[in-house]
Amino acid sequence: MWEGRGLWVWLLFLCAALGGVSAVMQKAHRRHLSLHRHRERGKEGQVLHRSKRGWVWNQFFVIEEYTGPDPVLVGRLHSDVDSGDGNIKYILSGEGAGTIFVIDDKTGNIHATKTLDREEQAQYTLTAQAVARDTNKPLEPPSEFIVKVQDINDNPPEFLHGPYYARVPEMSNVGTSVITVTASDADDPTYGNSARLVYSILQGQPYFSVEPQTGVIRTALPNMDREARQEYDVVIQAKDMGGHMGGLSGITEVKITLTDVNDNPPKFPQSVYNMAISEDKVPGEEVGRLKAKDLDLGENGLVEYRFVEGDGMGVLEISKDSETQEAVIKLKRTVDYETKKTYTVKVEASNPHVDSRFMAWGPYKDTATVKVNVEDADEPPVFMLPSYTFEVDENAPSGTPVGRVHAMDTDTSNNPVRYMIPRYTDLGQFFTITPEDGFIKTTQPLDRENQAWHNISVSATEIGGHHQDAKVRVNIKVKDVNDNAPEFATNNEVLVCENVTPGKLFSANQTPFTVSAIDKDEMAHQQHFHFSLAPEAAKNHNFSLKDNRDSTASVYVTRKGFNRMTQSIYMLPIEINDNGSPPMSSTNTLTIRVCSCDSKDTILSCNVEPFVLPAGLSTGALIAILACIVILLAIVVLFVALRRQKKEPLIVFEEEDIRENIITYDDEGGGEEDTEAFDIATLQNPDGANGFLPRKDIKPELQFPLRPGLRPVANSVDVDDFIKTRISDADNDPTAPPYDSIQIYGYEGRGSIAGSLSSLESVTTDSDLDYDYLQSWGPRFRKLADLYGTKDADDNS
Length: 797
Hints:
Elements: H1 2-45, E1 59-63, E2 72-76, E3 88-94, E4 101-103, E5 109-112, E6 123-132, E7 143-150, E8 164-169, E9 177-180, E10 198-203, E11 208-210, E12 216-219, E13 231-239, E14 249-259, E15 272-278, E16 286-290, E17 304-310, E18 316-321, E19 326-331, E20 342-350, E21 365-375, E22 382-383, E23 387-393, E24 401-404, E25 407-408, E26 417-420, E27 431-433, E28 439-442, E29 453-462, E30 469-479, E31 487-488, E32 494-497, E33 503-504, E34 514-518, E35 529-533, E36 543-547, E37 552-557, E38 569-578, E39 585-597, E40 603-605, H2 619-644, H3 680-684, H4 719-732, H5 759-764, H6 782-796
Parallel strand pairs: 1-7, 8-14, 15-21, 23-30, 32-39
Antiparallel strand pairs: 2-5, 3-6, 4-5, 6-7, 9-12, 10-13, 11-12, 13-14, 16-19, 17-20, 18-19, 20-21, 22-25, 24-28, 26-29, 27-28, 29-30, 31-34, 33-37, 34-37, 35-38, 36-37, 38-39, 39-40
GO molecular function: beta-catenin binding; cadherin binding; calcium ion binding
Organism: Denticeps clupeoides (denticle herring)
Membrane topology: Single-pass type I membrane protein
């Protein structure tokens, strides 16, 4: 209530001040106008006086945010020439003239018609002028003045960058600066206390404080621990009017986070850890894990582990899992339950990054004891050596001893061991082993040149228990024996010119030609080869051989010149001996070819050329003759191919097929029982009586005659046997076609219940026999049934 009364007192005071200023301005303006008229009169009467400059006013004031019902009177313009008769007209122009500011053209009163806001526009520049109402002729020169908007406290402070986020290390000293917050006030900072701000903390005590004038937030408590509380929400207030009553205020939030420092040492949750490892584990196996807890974060919470002391430092090793920060204890070397059952080590955990400010708080490390118990396990047998190497002579007989491997069970039970050679390591099955004692022997003679080393494995399995087994590598070297004869190192033939002179033989590149040898046996430093001509070539008069005594030999020509037309190739047998034990020898043939050379002994040709060409025929004529021969051969081949494409019967008869015609005989026989009038075999197969029938579908390379004894006799009693015999002949005949064919036989057998089936009788007899019963005889007589049934139907029609 008092605050409102004080505001009205200020307003009344401002109005009175503005009224006095307005009156002074009017008086000064009248004095200015009167002086102006005095200067005019002096000019007319030529009386000159020194002009006295009057006070020239230049600004009015108006309070912002006025919300009264009537327009606010800003000021009044009045001229000395205005006698009050209304002949003078006042004109206002400039910023806001006619819209915000209006003037009474008779009285000169200026009013503000709208509410003004200093924060939008602090002042307005206007121009006033007095003119004659009837002629609009200026009576006074234009006068410019400023209307200033008077500020009031109508804008609260604002934090333009809030909310704020800040970080400060934990355990910071009291008064450590955290962050500076700044608020702004839109009011006029040059007038009164409207823009004078004071900061205060509303939330966040007693941990933090704020400086009232600067807005700097500082820590207010010592030893703030991040592990106890990490984040704080602080509320800051900014108030204008110097923080006094009636001032406006604004607030902002500040989230403060305590950052970590290394103020906590690592700590093991327990002082003793018990672990176990089986004796059958290999080095590198994990024994167990333990972890020291550190409440700090990041690199401040990193922990390093190491062994400090203990009898297990030789068999155990420690490392760190970088992801879980755990200490990992692994087996460094194998352990034996029968030798030592327990190991103890002390593990130390420490921080690699220590803050010197907190060194006085204590050592940043901790220790724990780890006890590792070795567990008994059923271990496989152990070989006395990690690997074995033996030697055996080449070509040694089967059953030759090679060597012995030995393994034993190290468990307390000491079970016996059984040996074997896995077949996949000895695919050739060259060796065998005695299961009880591990003696290895050969199963066949070995060839060093085929395989010099045999690498096998031997498995030892304990008898009883869990049948644990172990394997060992056995390397067997085959010792060399001189069992291979020497031979030529290369088999290249030697070229010699026809016009060669006696002496050493040269190769094609004009270098002396030498014979060398190789031996598949193991070559020793003292091994040499001796060369000589074979006995059958010792008396030849063309070439000779000289042993160079360095495992090579030189070939010499002993005659002058050769004639390659007479003989172009010479074979020179050479005997090679080695000095092995026992010595081995072989005879190898050196091929010497005679070639045509020029005067410089350059080889021109080594091929045999014809002696005489046909007289009168040139090379072009010979080529033409050969071309004609090739064309004729092509025509013949084409003709044969076209002939083969014609479709012809598979069986070629000289005249006709007996199965398609009726053979008529002029003499009358005694019936079917009379077999002496004519040969019944002619009726069965007249073309086949003299031999094998030719086939057109294939061309056999070898003709197989019918097997004797399988052809039935003409007067066979059983026709079924006769048919089966013919089927068997067709199945076994390689020239038979791959399809079925109908074979017609004229002989039906003796005593057939069907009577005569001869087509001769059917033609000459007008009997009305019913042949429907042939349908029931099966597929062999179906063709006859179809033929006779059709004939009967045609006769009836």
